[in-house]
């Protein structure tokens, strides 16, 4: 039957106007019989990538979430109008046609390619394809032009730690799932003479090349910018047989480096569809190993470029700060506002009527401590699980150290009483299994802390915002959104600011905890969490003290020194940490209206401890010390005692050690003990 007639018939049946593309010889028409993985793969970017190379790609996706091949076949057999048919037309605009049967979509265009997609966990099970794939092939063949090619989608393995039920089939192992997918799809492709779109390998390439966490957004669906672009690149190259490397299309919100990585990983997958390739890319800092190329990053003290620091005691309008009162009333608020709007992003205030519940309490550490675990609800279904250790038998409210942890409360001590997060709550982040218990113990000398009469208060970053670039959709991020807003404004919070806000919410709780004196709480943190502790204390004057351990770039280190980690690298590796305005200062440090010495000065008049490590050149120990010394000048100007500020540099690497803690405890003894 004439295809145009069928199209018109289909359109009439749907009551909408589906239209065949004008016949340009280089037009390619691809129809997917798919599901949500297909939605991630082809409904965005693909048309644009092809257009950048001068191709016209018409893309159709017959969508049912989680659809299996068996169900596709049943739907075909009954001609059931079960699909949301999405079509990206010649103009690149995506239109959704509800309640469409497969037959109508097959008749909608003279398709050049039909791609079959199995449900993501079943795709690794060859038996699950039979006899459905053969039936569907025949069904499609009878309704498409003779030249129409048929393909199969090699989908991707889930993120390690994914809570998708299908993951159990692979013992929750990403590698096992990937290998099973390859075996299964290769066998099906051979048996049914299908060629393959190796998305699963592209995803795996990227995991091995760059960052294991960044490809998916919830543990199995693709990250909205990076993962989707990566897989669209793979489709493009597999369909159009043109290398995607160097393609000029730029998806929203992806830096050049991740575009480069995605293109190369997709290309490598098309060249070697069944093996993982770790691609070379222009990566000055290898996030997996910490090796950076010296030509990109300066770690040579002799090569530090000249710079002039802004004067902490000069207002933006050029006026000199002439009195401590003026500092507190004018300059400090001005600086805080600049740091909030140009670097970290503004956070909302406290949560009205915030609720909490004691989830667990009991003796711990051989009776030396009382362990208390508290859930603090900051949004419906969102809460922080705070883990506290208090010296057993403490009488009266005591001072405390509050610091977030990187990998979950269970990692800070082998104490078997520490609660695991509820599985669904940790969705899409790392898996919490028994072996993780105590894995970060060396950073948390709990016994020393309680023996010295302090409470330790800690919680996991993920409870506020998981530490990966998810497209600003998860964690506390959406709390600030107006209706319809999907992305923070350029001056609204990034993850560091969210975490700091979370520390303040925990302090809200401590104000109600009778055993802790909330007016004597030190904010402490290592590295990215050192940046966070400084921000929390800068913003929230209730914190009585701040401790920055190796906080480096974006923490205690001067940005203008461009030594070790720079704004370019930190925003490239962690685009979610800062607010949008901060990106203006990439390679443009001299135009910053402040530098980090002024960030440290925001802690005054409270005690401030900054620490560095000799071998931690990535954090620029010299830049940390210089910033500290400049901040001290503000303390001096304010007439504050020199004992309120302390700095140390110790031998060794980027780490928070017991030795560091012992010094912080000594310092706290001077300031937080009555
Ligand atoms: C590094 C990052 C640093 C620091 C560190 C950490 O990869 O470049 O800014 O935050 O991570 O938090 O351990």
Structural account:
By secondary structure, the protein is of the alpha/beta class. Helices cover 31% and strands 17% of the residues. It has helices at 3-14, 36-42, 46-52, 69-78, 102-108, 132-141, 174-191, 199-209, 226-240, 256-271, 324-344, 446-451, 495-510, 528-539, 567-573, 596-601, 621-637, 658-671, and strands at 27-34, 56-63, 83-88, 94-100, 113-116, 149-153, 195-197, 355-364, 369-379, 382-391, 398-405, 455-460, 516-526, 545-549, 608-613, 645-650. The strands form two sheets. Strands 8-9-10-12-11-13-14-15-16 form a nine-stranded mixed β-sheet, sandwiched between helices. Strands 4-3-2-1-5-6-7 form a seven-stranded mixed β-sheet, sandwiched between helices. The longest helix is centred in the middle third of the chain and has 21 residues, at 324-344. The termini are far apart. The structure holds beta-D-galactopyranuronic acid. The site of beta-D-galactopyranuronic acid has 7 residues, from helix 15. Beta-D-galactopyranuronic acid is lined by residues 527-528, 552-553, 565, 570, 573.
Brief rundown of the structure:
It is built from 18 helices and 16 strands. The chain is α/β, with parallel strands linked by helices.
Low-confidence stretches: 1-21, 283-295, 426-432
Could you report the average pLDDT, rounded to the nearest whole number?
90
The N- to C-terminal Cα distance equals 91 Å
Number of strands: 16
Radius of gyration using CA atoms only? 28 Å
Structural class: alpha/beta
Order of strands in the sheet with most strands: 8-9-10-12-11-13-14-15-16
What is the global morphology?
A: elongated
Instruction: Report the β-strand fraction as a percent range.
Output: 15-25%
Helix content: 25-40%
Q: Sheet bearing the most strands, described?
A: 9 strands, mixed
Enumerate the distinct ligands: beta-D-galactopyranuronic acid
Number of helices: 18
